[in-house]
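Example 9 (inverse folding). The structure is encoded as follows.
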């Protein structure tokens, strides 16, 4: 059994299912709830990228903390029982890189994220994580 699980979360329902799966399947493992801060992501209605300033990064980290709090509250999980982490970069690359930094021995991801294509069974981030990770990856639908 893995002792440390990295659960990637982007705020999507698939990511929330991945978190629920990890908590239920590995009750004795250390859970690291992880969010990749994508500097190339634009919000609907934005016509250009935000400037990558310290203020931008602080806002993104605060948004990640809110995402973590909401995800854990929805599953009625005490926040102090789960570790959290963020990193800036392409989601797939930062998820794979976080494995070493967090000492995780397994990754759990949702099958699709917020930008999921309707008929696709596995999103591009999940697919890249599966291909590049040095540890087992579970993809949750």
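The amino acid assigned to each position is listed next.
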């Amino acid at each position: 059994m893995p002792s440390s699980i990295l659960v990637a979360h982007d705020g999507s329902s698939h990511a929330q299912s991945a978190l629920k799966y990890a908590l239920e399947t590995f009750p004795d493992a250390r859970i690291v709830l992880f969010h990749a801060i994508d500097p190339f992501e634009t919000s609907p209605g934005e016509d250009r990228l935000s400037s990558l300033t310290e203020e931008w990064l602080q806002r993104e980290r605060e948004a990640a903390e809110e995402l973590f709090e909401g995800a854990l509250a929805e599953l009625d999980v005490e926040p102090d029982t789960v570790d959290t982490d963020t990193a800036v970069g392409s989601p797939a690359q930062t998820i794979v890189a976080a494995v070493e930094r967090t000492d995780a021995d397994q990754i759990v991801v949702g099958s699709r994220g917020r930008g999921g294509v309707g008929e696709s069974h596995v999103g591009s981030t999940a697919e890249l994580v599966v291909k590049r990770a040095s540890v087992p990856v579970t993809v949750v639908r």
